[in-house]
Specification:
The complex is a heterodimer of chains A (117) and B (116).
Chain A lengths: L2 E3 L4 E5 L4 E3 L2 E3 L5 E8 L6 E7 L6 E3 L2 E6 L4 E6 L8 E9 L9 E2 L3 E6 L1
Parallel strand pairs in A: 2-12
Antiparallel strand pairs in A: 1-4, 3-9, 5-6, 5-10, 7-8, 8-9, 10-11, 10-12
Chain B lengths: L3 E4 L2 E4 L5 E7 L5 E7 L5 E9 L2 E4 L6 E3 L9 E3 L8 E8 L11 E2 L3 E5 L1
Parallel strand pairs in B: 2-11
Antiparallel strand pairs in B: 1-3, 3-8, 4-5, 4-9, 5-6, 7-8, 9-10, 9-11
The chains are: A mainly beta (117), B mainly beta (116).
């Protein structure tokens, strides 16, 4: 069975600090997708990134970067020079590629990030 | 292109009442999902569908029913509302895996349901 653990329930930083959100996953599949979603205070869920299990290259998008390490089953998310608008709940998710999975994702419980001015 | 829409946005039910949460997507996605999000928790899968006429249970299906008569619509039915069903409900959709979409799900804005 697949499982996603986000050990950090809440993180509070001051604006312009860097912050890393941790995500550890468990799966028996050798092929899978990993995701990060953002849920701002307005409540909607916004897709941020998808990573295929075959692709361990780190990715950078503006102030966001993601570090995928299969050896430690981790997919961590770093925000550089955080801003107040980054305040949100961030979810990590896993989708196994088994043919019977029908695209279902398992979500972690989320990390609430508060960025103070 | 509206994406995934959900109605209503808010609802208060009394114990034992029933209601249907509506979900519609206009992206021609085959796969659709219903999740619930309890306070401080992640999303739990209630039901999902891989196409019209095909539905299956997720992690927490008890107390709910679904139907999928068209590609666009995937309503969620609560027959006898209980306080334990107080939650925020999200509908999502995605393309089939064969499309190369990588299982990325697109979410509706959610329905906040309170059962008193």
């Amino acid at each position: 069975a697949q499982k996603v653990t986000q050990a950090q329930t809440e993180i509070s930083v001051v604006e312009k600090e860097d912050v890393t959100l941790d995500c550890v996953y468990e799966t028996r599949d050798t092929t899978y997708y990993l995701f990060w979603y953002k849920q701002p205070p307005s409540g909607e869920l916004v897709f941020l990134i998808r990573r295929n299990s075959f692709d361990e290259q780190n990715e950078i998008s503006g102030r966001y970067s993601w570090n995928f390490q299969k050896s430690t089953s981790s997919f961590n998310f770093t925000i550089t020079a955080s801003q107040v608008v980054d305040s949100a709940v961030y979810f990590c998710a896993l989708s196994e590629q088994a043919s019977t999975n029908a695209g279902k994702s398992t979500f972690g419980d989320g990390t609430t990030l508060t960025v103070k001015p | 292109n509206a994406g995934v829409t959900q109605t209503p946005k808010f609802r208060i039910l009394k114990i034992g009442q029933s209601m249907t949460l509506q979900c519609t997507q206009d992206m021609n996605h085959n796969y659709m999902y219903w999740y619930r999000q309890d306070p401080g928790m992640g999303l739990k899968l209630i039901y999902y569908s891989v196409g019209a006429g095909i539905t299956d249970k997720g992690e927490v299906p008890n107390g709910y029913n679904v139907s999928r008569s068209t590609t666009e619509d995937f309503p969620l039915r609560l027959e006898l509302a209980a306080p334990s069903q107080t939650s925020v409900y999200f509908c999502a959709s995605s393309l089939p895996r064969t499309s190369g979409s990588g299982d990325t799900q697109y979410f509706g804005p959610g329905t906040r349901l309170t059962v008193l």
